[in-house]
Structures are given as C-alpha cells and as structure tokens.
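The instructor's notes for this session suggest beginning with a concrete chain rather than abstract definitions. Hand out the sequence below and ask the class to guess, before any prediction is shown, which regions might be ordered.
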Amino acid sequence: MLIDVNPLANTVAVWSRRDFIAPFIVVGSILASFGTDVLKKAINQDRPAGAPFTDPGMPSSYALVSTFLAVGWAAAAASTASRAALLSAALLISVLRVACSYHTYAQIAVGGLVGGLTASGWMVLGSAIVAQRGAQRTASITRICVNPHLHSYTYYIPVVPRNRSSG
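After discussion, reveal the predicted structure:
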C-alpha cells in the first residue's frame, strides 16, 4: 500500500512558509494534476497487465505531480541537499509506482519529464509575478485564496517596495 505524502508535505510547507511561493507551487501542482487527466485521455495508453486500475496509464499522474512539486520546491530551496532530497523523493515515488505494477517505466518517465518541464515554466511565471509586484514600488497587501480539499485558507502576503538607490 502506497501512502500519498504530497498533501501532507504541501500542507506543512504552506503552513510554515506563509509566503507567495508556497501556495503558488501548490496551485500549480493542482493545475498539473488536471493537465495529467487531459493527457491520459488523449494518449489513452493502457497500464501494465495486472494493474488494479482501468484508467489510462500514460503519463503517470504520481510521477508528473511528484516531479512538479519536487522541481517547484527545489527552485525555492536554499540548499543543494534539500534539492537533492526533493528530487530523490519524486524519483522514489515514481519507481514505486512501477514496483507496484501500476505503471511502466515509460509512463513514469513521461510523467516525470512533463512534470519537470511544467514546473520549470510555472516557476518562471512565479518569478515574473514577483518581479512585477516589486517593480510597482507600492506597499500593498496581496490576498491569495487557496481551497485545497474544500478547506479555505487565505494568505496575506505583504509586498514591500524595493529600495533602489538613485544613480
């Protein structure tokens, strides 16, 4: 039996960080999850023989979302060790899906690739949003509402203008 650690890890991260990037990564992973469903229906590749699920297996949703989260959090992580641990955890989750006969290696490879590329683009978008907010030079409060699993959370993020020297 596999336990999905993504919701727990994301809840702890959002709760402890209380910044723009935490809910931004979680929202991105939710959107990536919806995108996985679209890809599965479009590709419509069967899972391995004996898999207990009947939905298409390409790409692996777990590999895609786990890799998305790992790449997103790795981009926000301060240390190389943290980045390595995050990426290793995503790889382990993906390989366990093959070990349980839920997916093939090709299905987790595609899921991991799509998840990593999607997360990279999502984090570039997040950086652009943060840069734009800083460039506005206004002190304001941004309100971000996240509704994971029907529990409402509201985060207030102070946006402080950058102090630029004249010259």
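Then share the key points. The chain has a mean pLDDT of 77. Helices lie at 6-17, 21-43, 61-76, 80-99, 105-135.
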